[in-house]
Amino acid sequence: MERIPELELMESDEQARAYSEADFSAPHQMFVDLFLKEFGTGFTGVVLDLGCGPADIAVRFAKAYPQSRIHGVDGSKAMLEYGKRRLHEKGIEKNITLIHGRIPDCKLPLDRYDCIIVNSLLHHLPEPGILWTTIRNFAARHAIIFVMDLIRPGSTGEALHIVEKYCSNEPQILKDDFYNSLLAAYTIKEVKHQLMEAGMEYLDVKRVSDRHLLVSGKMKT
Questions:
Q1: What CATH number has the domain spanning 13-113+126-142+151-218?
Q2: What is the DSSP string of 6-24?
Q3: Helix, strand, or coil here: 171?
Q4: Mapping DSSP to helix (H, G, I), strand (E, B) and coil, where does residue 91 land?
Q5: Backbone angles phi, psi at 151, to 5 degrees
Q6: What is the reported pLDDT for 23?
Q7: Stretch 120-128: mean pLDDT, rounded?
Q8: Domain map of the chain by residue range?
Q9: Where are the alpha helices (DSSP H) in the chain?
Q10: How far apart, in whole angstroms, are the C-alpha atoms of residue 166 and residue 175?
Q11: What's the CA gap between 120 and 182, in Å, rounded?
């Protein structure tokens, strides 16, 4: 199935609210658990969370790594408003800083980061190279890179099946967004090609669920 691009940002309050209130506990906790499995419990550096949305993964990461600091960036002000509420509710505002900005031109507090995490941003971007260039620009030497995203299904029918399997009880707007995201996602082969073009082919790419791929490893330069 050919890729069908979708809108880059979820800017409406309705979209942001539906995403923030949806039950993403399984894939978001899987993200953190996979990081723990691969890199252990001792990380204490500064993390850049690109496309942080309403900050659910940032909160989960901060709980797993309480000595770390996280700078979360998102281009949607609506998403960040829900993120700020989440940080206040969880009482961890001192650990996480949320920043409004769009890559690759966003202004960040630091020039380099010890770790860059990304969840479900790649398929939203108009050009995939934007993500990999941003990572290269902001990653410190030997920084940890951890990028999870959707995998494009083989057909629209398969995409609809995945939506019903995981979002049957969610609002229709969330189902529509999930379906569009699946159609906009990349295959593992395509991501490997993107990494080769970016000079980051040494990073590992693998399937980690029926709908997710993971790019992970440490920067060499």
A1: 3.40.50.150
A2: --S---SHHHHHHHHHS--
A3: coil
A4: coil
A5: -110, 135
A6: 65
A7: 93
A8: 13-113+126-142+151-218
A9: 13-21, 25-39, 56-64, 77-90, 129-138, 156-167, 172-184, 188-197
A10: 9
A11: 10
Measured between alpha carbons, how far is 54 from 56 in angstroms, rounded to an integer?
6
Per-residue pLDDT tens digits for 15-65: 767 666 666 788 999 999 999 999 999 999 999 999 999 999 999 999 999
Short-list 72, 71, 81, CA closest to 19: 81
Q: What is the pLDDT of residue 47?
A: 98
Instruction: For residues 103-123, give the mean pLDDT.
Output: 95
pTM attached to this predicted model = 0.94
Q: Identify which of 119, 124, 123 has the alpha carbon closest to the alpha carbon of residue 48.
A: 119
Which amino acid appears at position 81 of this protein?
Answer: E
Q: Exposed, middle or buried: residue 213 (CB in 10 Å: 0-12, 13-18, 19+)?
A: buried
Residues 148-200 pLDDT 10s: 999 999 999 999 999 999 988 888 888 998 999 999 999 999 999 999 999 99
Q: Is the dihedral of CA 164, 170, 172, 178 positive or negative?
A: negative
- Do 133 and 106 meet the contact criterion of CB atoms below 8 Å apart? no
Q: Tell me, what's the pLDDT at 171?
A: 86
3-class SS of residue 167 = helix
Angle (CA) 38 55 184, round 5°: 75
Report the C-alpha gap between 31 and 123 in whole angstroms. Answer: 17
pLDDT tens, residue by residue, 2-14:
999 876 555 666 7
Contact 139, 203 (CB under 8 A): no
